[in-house]
């Protein structure tokens, strides 16, 4: 797994237009793009499923472990890694800072969405 170039991560983190498309079961076809919130913590991008672990995109991301995102005018091949533990407090802080004032913030830092936190990192592809 590679890390995000700082300028790309900053642009993605500042954008409000991230769409996530985990691979379908065949491992080659991308799923329907789903608009979700994203935040950056340190050198990583994090997303959460509003409806928790039952969200279709979350289940696909955890099962297939790869796909792509589109944000800030870029389309990137990525890998997905579910996370748990103390990083969630920092992800909560990032959500509070970025989405302050939104009526959807409370559910996004609540236990249902928090249980479905995913780290999104760039995926090396064959050129």
Automatic annotation (TrEMBL):
Pfam families, alphabetized: DUF2255
InterPro entries: UCP028498
Protein source organism: Paludisphaera borealis
Protein name: DUF2255 domain-containing protein
